[in-house]
Specification:
Shape: elongated
Radius of gyration: 35 Å
Helix content: 10-25%
Number of strands: 46
Strand content: 35-45%
Largest sheet: 6 strands, mixed
Number of domains: 6
CATH architecture of the largest domain: Orthogonal Bundle
Number of helices: 8
Strand order of the largest sheet: 11-17-16-13-14-46
Structural class: mainly beta
CATH topology of the largest domain: Lysozyme
Length: 637
């Protein structure tokens, strides 16, 4: 109404709910319910303290916003308690918030990593706890958080993605601890990433005689990086695909890599398009290295050990050798082309010895490692396999054993810890095993021992305490139908995202990966109690705990053992507990720095030690892309 009264033209786009205002050389664009206002033909932007609203087909905005945008005088007359609008008087632009972007102006070009600085017109009016940067599309006025910092820093780092390119609106806003916006400023920017892809600390002409550490130095945030290493002497090319774009990659050259090499880094965008980076010509001069692993100097060997040849060259024969310290006499333990050897010394080999590895390389040259001095127990040994300490046996299993001699009369002895009753099972020498059916025993606690006869003497082996349970066993349960899990998890993720700035896409992808789309949530294996534990966190919580299983290893065999996992009253508690871990644990600081971005966050959480699976980030990123989870991170004002 005011605009029309002073001679302005107003146009309405019903589909986009957009109002366009034109008066003389002033062109203004605003969208209903969006606080971001564009003016000067969308070459500039600002944030209103109130979003435009639609009432009876008319758009209402604060009058002082009209004064700002149309350069007319709007003032309050306290005597008459009237607002006076005078189009004949000019009015200076009056900020609606105290916060202001100071490092960049309207129409700034951002071509790479940039520090966005802010300040307050009234120096003591800093409000809120978080400073967030938002990059918004000019048409929809929605976008994504692209930077985050403590408000006291008065600056945040924006690391653009290639996909950010184009004419955008950059918002710097302060938020309270609940994720509510307090103040904001906006500028129109053009993002035009000029990729700079280098390797930190690497220079042409460098020489290496050991591992080469490759650390990306980038001015943008790619999906991943790739390293290509070419031997300039042989022409051989090796690619290391989809590596952490912010983390260190260590390449260990082989002896055969000696010579002149070129190392090139590539960056991959979210569509896996490659952007070539710098090429570095270096030389490698690695001496042949051979050492024995699997044993340590001075150790006593009374159990099987796995001997391995650590080498940096190809071989055609490998021998593991035992040497007498006094006489120097050598005994070949095993000859094979390559690989490791499991050695369980027999009693005839006892006392202090030396163990070494000898190889013949591809050229026919014989190379011998330094010897490792060990003490060999020299006793006949028999060890249990098939059941481990504290295991709860619920189904038929095979009891086995390993020994360093040829024993006879193998017996597995099962003793009830409460009754003292014993059952003896005869082992089958041919298969080294016996079948054990727990349903034939009373439920309770037992001890399993093994013994055998060697040279007429009964040899007592090890023993383990275990339990038998013959009741119903409950497995993981489905917390919701698979097709509904994205909405189920996504709603909790978006609530957390609003409050903390942690990518909702990343949160949801983690829940999908760790619960198998909500179909594998731990329950108590003995009573079926549901845990609501979406992230497999051990311990106890608001609803106590549930007993599920985890894995351990005994005498070289993996077995499951009971463990307590946190139980929650509802899934939301589990969600919040997991977020608290990531937000508060010191080791996740590197993750918190970039947690607003699903790509950078996926790599950082692995770098912080969250998961042991090296493919964990790529699995998360695939889930995000395949299911369009990025949309969960879309925000506006």
């Amino acid at each position: 109404f005011v605009t029309e009264e002073i001679g302005g033209e107003v146009a309405w786009d019903n589909e986009k709910r957009k109002v366009s205002i034109k008066k003389n050389d002033k062109n203004i664009s605003l969208v209903i319910d969006k606080k971001v206002i564009q003016y000067d033909n969308k070459k500039a932007a600002m944030v209103s303290d109130m979003a435009p609203i639609l009432v009876d087909s008319r758009t209402f905005v604060p009058l002082r916003l009209v004064g700002n945008l149309l350069d007319i005088d709007v003032r309050w007359d306290n005597n008459t308690r009237r607002v006076i609008v005078d189009s004949n008087k000019a009015s200076a632009m009056e900020p609606l918030y105290d916060i202001k972007i100071t490092s960049h102006g309207q129409n700034s070009i951002i071509d790479g990593k940039s520090t966005i600085k802010v300040d307050w017109s009234k120096k003591n009016t800093i409000q809120g706890s978080q400073l967030r940067l938002l990059l918004l599309d000019k048409n929809s006025l929605t976008g994504f958080i692209v930077g985050r910092a403590d408000i006291k820093n008065k600056e945040a780092l924006y690391i653009p993605e290639i996909e950010d390119n184009g004419d955008k609106i950059l918002v710097a806003a302060s938020y309270d601890t609940d994720g509510n916006m307090i103040e904001a400023d906006a500028i129109a920017v053009k993002v035009d990433v000029k990729p700079q892809i280098t390797l930190q600390g690497l220079q042409n002409g460098m020489s290496f005689n050991s591992d080469i550490k490759l650390t990306p130095a980038l001015n943008f945030a790619p999906y991943a990086v790739k390293y290509q290493i070419k031997n300039l002497n042989t022409g051989e090319v090796v690619d290391f695909d989809e590596k952490d774009p912010q983390g260190e990659f260590v390449w260990s050259p082989n002896y055969t890599d000696n010579g002149e090499l070129s190392i090139q880094i590539f960056a991959l965008d979210n569509n896996k398009k490659q952007y070539p980076g710098s090429i570095y010509n270096v030389s490698v001069s690695i001496p042949q290295k051979l050492s024995l692993s699997g044993i340590k100097e001075g150790m006593t060997i009374n159990s099987p050990v796995i001997l391995n040849a650590n080498r940096n060259f190809d071989v055609r024969e490998t021998q593991y050798i035992l040497r007498d310290i006094n006489t120097g006499a050598e005994t070949i333990l095993k000859t094979l082309p390559y690989g490791g050897y499991t050695w369980f010394p027999e009693p005839s080999i006892s006392g202090s010895k030396e163990v070494l590895v000898r190889v013949i390389d591809a050229s026919g040259k014989t190379i011998t490692s330094s010897p490792v001095k060990v003490k060999i127990d020299g006793k006949p040994i028999i060890q249990l396999q098939g059941v481990g300490p504290n295991q709860v046996v619920t189904e038929k299993t095979k009891l086995t054993y390993r020994t360093n001699v040829n024993m006879t009369d193998i017996k597995f002895i099962i003793t009830g810890l409460k009754t003292g009753n014993k059952v003896i099972l005869d082992g089958d020498i041919a298969s080294n095993s016996v079948s054990f059916d727990p349903s034939q025993y009373i439920q309770g606690n037992y001890r399993l021992a093994i013994e055998g006869v060697y040279n007429g003497t009964r040899i007592i082996g090890d023993s383990v305490d275990f339990s038998i349970y013959n009741g119903t066993i409950y497995g993981p349960y489905s917390i919701i139908e698979k097709a509904q899990f994205i909405n189920f998890a996504g709603n909790m993720a978006k609530e957390s995202y609003k409050k903390t700035g942690m990518s909702a896409a990343l949160q949801t992808a983690q829940a999908i990966l760790e619960t198998g789309w909500g179909q594998s949530v731990p329950s108590d294996k003995y009573n079926g109690k549901k845990s609501n534990n979406l992230f497999g966190i051990k311990g106890s919580s608001t609803n106590g705990s549930v007993v599920s299983h985890t894995w351990e290893v005994y005498n070289g065999i993996r077995y499951n053992v009971d463990a307590n996992f946190r139980a929650y009253k509802n899934p939301k508690e589990s969600w919040n507990d997991h977020k608290a871990l990531l937000l508060n644990a010191e080791r996740y600081g590197v993750f918190r720095d970039v947690m607003y971005n699903s790509n950078m966050g996926a790599w950082a959480i692995r770098r912080a030690g969250y998961a042991t699976d090296p493919a964990y980030p790529l699995k998360l990123l695939k889930i995000i892309k395949d299911n369009k989870l990025k949309e969960l991170d879309r925000v506006g004002l």
